């Protein structure tokens, strides 16, 4: 099986497993993630952290994002500009959110565009070495590459439920490895950069 086909298979299987988690269980798992990572993520006041607002059956990391804001983080979320580009717009309390494609919402065009230093990355599947499978559109891979072209090297924390782990993700040249993975079981560092 080609890497692309195996990734598609893993994506479908792991998203189906995620979809099967009851909504009340999802809330409990999100609160467990907050307990594991809210104070454990190394964060300097003023650092820019990109989170995301949940779509479909994704974990709701808004409690974690709120804790990081309390600790001094400047928050932003991805907004889709076109079929290949996302930018990260600042998320400030009380600001209106607008539909931004792919079932997502985010701050409108008047919001400041920021370059994240820490990225909380949604995914469909991951392995214990930090390789991830996204949703197939490549938005995050391209966004991370653009940041690296600017000389930035954001710390990447994958966000998923335990049921989204697979034995091994077939890595391709364009894939970017995560520095850590946060699930309801804990914050696992897979890179010296972040641990």
UniProtKB/TrEMBL annotation:
The keyword Iron belongs to this UniProt entry's keyword annotation: no
So what EC number does this one have?
Answer: 6.3.3.2
Name the needed cofactors.
Mg(2+)
List the catalysed reactions: (6S)-5-formyl-5,6,7,8-tetrahydrofolate + ATP = (6R)-5,10-methenyltetrahydrofolate + ADP + phosphate
Query: Which Gene3D superfamilies does the record match to this protein?
Result: NagB/RpiA/CoA transferase-like
Q: Name one GO molecular function term.
A: 5-formyltetrahydrofolate cyclo-ligase activity
Q: Read off the InterPro entries from this record.
A: FTHF_cligase, FTHF_cligase-like_sf, NagB/RpiA_transferase-like
Q: Which UniProt keywords apply?
A: ATP-binding, Ligase, Magnesium, Metal-binding, Nucleotide-binding
Family assignment? Answer: Belongs to the 5-formyltetrahydrofolate cyclo-ligase family.
Protein name, as recorded: 5-formyltetrahydrofolate cyclo-ligase
| Organism from which the protein derives | Rhizobium mayense
